[in-house]
């Protein structure tokens, strides 16, 4: 579809195109398709399909030597548990409301829109709507939409609406939420349609009684549904390793079965003929055919080498560890009543292997609550000079939540200093804030960005109160006097201009342009006469930057009436142009925004969250590298880096990459000052003339060094800005960039776009075999969160987009240390112990069958009772290993923070790897030899104490399986580091369960009920009452665990691990006093960050956001947040709550954590 065509009130015409209806199916199953579809999906997994294949083999009498229930019971259990989980996750939500492309009438009683339509009319004098836009699930922003005048005149007259026959031509369905292009043809005239005239699916009417519109897209063609693509399914590194190991196990299983089949063929040729009297062969069956059948028989018998219960157990362990995260009170934030949430159950152990953390800055490291802190006006700096708050009682409209401490600025305002008045007048006029006054004197500001809200609130408290606005005027109260300025033009902000201006006419008739923006941008447009003032202001900006403040420069100029009239005419022509409109407007803006006069600068503080420096320091000691990816200016991010201990004064050097071409960036990355301390071979090969060969060598050298990071002499930091990063991410430079960045302890990327954030994460994932984590709080972090192995969302001031795209979420950055160093490390350790032990007990169980085959003529006879084979993994050994996997701790939470080095083994995959798996297999091989040959030798020439023979198959089977269960239970005890009552109950209870079930199944009553199923009658009571049997059990169990005890003793004494060292240390002393923060005087300039989105000056001047005074209006805002794609109605102005409520007082001990968790002890043994 290249173009969509619609005609109002012409159903036949619209139906001819066969556009999608409004029917949307968001569920995967329904009542009839659930069972077949779910089974089909489950059997696509190799393990499930494998066990189904075994079940088919077991129904063939010539092959199977086991009963069908040995496979059916575990398989049915696994399929049932998985099906129940899938059914719970898939809540059926089928919306089958069919809507024809016609007129739609909406009122306040309707739920959010479930289709896109073009707005025709609404009840306002200016045809407009107020919407609460529920975009991307719970991201709420107040929006203003505008109807065309030609359709707005239709009102709610049904007859006029029914007679309307306009035709719409627009773009086909797509997922672009920020743009729409189309035309309406009516009465021979064409009218442009854009995004401001379209109501999207998910919007809800606010402060608007009704509206009429024409449906354009429905159902799956709406933009919201077009954006609902499936997220990439994330698997842990252990999952990927398991896939490889399972394939290896399958190969090993085929190898063992082949050996036993060959053995059967040889045995049949040499010994089989002697047994034909007892076991006559069927016609045509020779030794080769017998070997073929034996191969498949042993495939069935040895299938426990890949137990199906493994996958169910893994899911239970992950679910339990996810609950620990949800229940952790230390990760609960009382101020916002926000607990931590594990939004996935499949990635817990990956949290214990994180090597790189990619973090946003604003709202993630900082609070994203802006406060007007300092300013520079006409060369004089104002700010905090004492702790006494300024009294704003002289201003009845002042915001009581605004705090300022420099009384000199108030005195300058009262003395009517002209520069000071001009300064605050600019702040009161140059913005796109909307004011809401519920009652006299009670103002609420709805700002596009928190910075802008803070500036307008500052002007309000210093006597320049923004009161209200119309499409062509702005009303402010200047020192108690009501004044109305004619608003002639808004030169709106965008991410290229980095500034905004307004042109107003004063009540006296004077034309003025007021401009605010990034200091570097404003300085380029200043008049030459401002050079001295610019130097002084620059010094103030440097001072503000040293404190990590966000700065903004203010300037103005007076305009000539005649020139402005000419410019205004050209501006009108450019704003109505259909082609190249933006570039034409930019040229006009550049023309008028020059020769400005500098007024001063503002400094806004965005405070760090509590515990951020301590958390970053702790993660750094755990050898986790932190990269900050922010859209803020380089100077701002760099100073925040020093504030949060990401960059430190004691670093050897902090490299700044600011090249403007790919060649410059490459040379800077390759420069001698970056690579001179590397102990590896430098990757630059300047002597090579062939560029392709040089790139090949670079990549080859990188491959060899990608296993481990390069070792450098000293600590380094790297700061790179947005345009340089764009070149650094090019294919020819990306390896250079990554090598240099990986040498650094900390990396800060500034002025990056959301796409670049994801590209940086993908770059590290591509070349470094490490686990990455991305953490952010806003919509511009979603791509980064989805790209990383682990995504963490901060539920802060910016809504829920980041949280809803994340794998884990909480309210404060400092909780990341709990997530990684405690929950992540424990989850990884538990999962590795579980896998090691699970493979050990099942390999040992299976290998005994292999040795027994050499003594039973390779006849596919099982060693154990069939019921023991069925219940071994499901009952006898299930709960003990689950108890270890859910409750085990090598060290407690306190020691995890005191010794962050405990985290490093997880990064290196030391607890479970191919090597660890191979060691586990060797251990199992040894144990199986002991478990088979010791009971075999003990039973071979043994008699009971009454002289009767006990050397029968059933007694041998009972003795072997009892020895096996004791051996694996003792081994489990050696694996556990932290015993609880639950663990003890599970281990002892499982042994008790084994004996209870064994005596029951081997009883006379069970034999009389089902003789064929319970053939081991009396074996338990006849064997287990003999002392030599228990002596054999003791000897076998001791020999199984003796090498393990010896190996671990020698390992602890000769080569102790970090865990062994920590467990032997004494409790840490009381934490020392906090170190004194080094106050840093920086020459870098902090940057003021506008919103990433286009501004809303056109809405201000069009009148489309204005409404008639309502009888009653909400007293508080419903949401707050800085967004990247639109107007944010609730700015955090001057440090007060976006909900209109005062900030809550600091809650003491709400997290219940000790400062000791941030400390590290100095122990020479470590």
Structure notes:
This protein is α+β, with helices and mostly antiparallel strands. The chain has 5 domains: 4-18 and 114-228, no CATH class; 33-104; 237-319 and 823-1052, no CATH class; 334-364 and 609-678 and 707-811, 3-Layer(aba) Sandwich (Rossmann fold); 371-607, 3-Layer(aba) Sandwich (Calcium-transporting ATPase, cytoplasmic domain N). 42% of the residues lie in helices and 16% in strands. It is built from 40 helices and 33 strands. The protein has a 9-stranded mixed β-sheet, with helices on both faces. The longest helix has 38 residues, at 816-853. The model is unreliable at 91-112, 130-141, 672-708, 1070-1093 and 1104-1166 (pLDDT under 50).
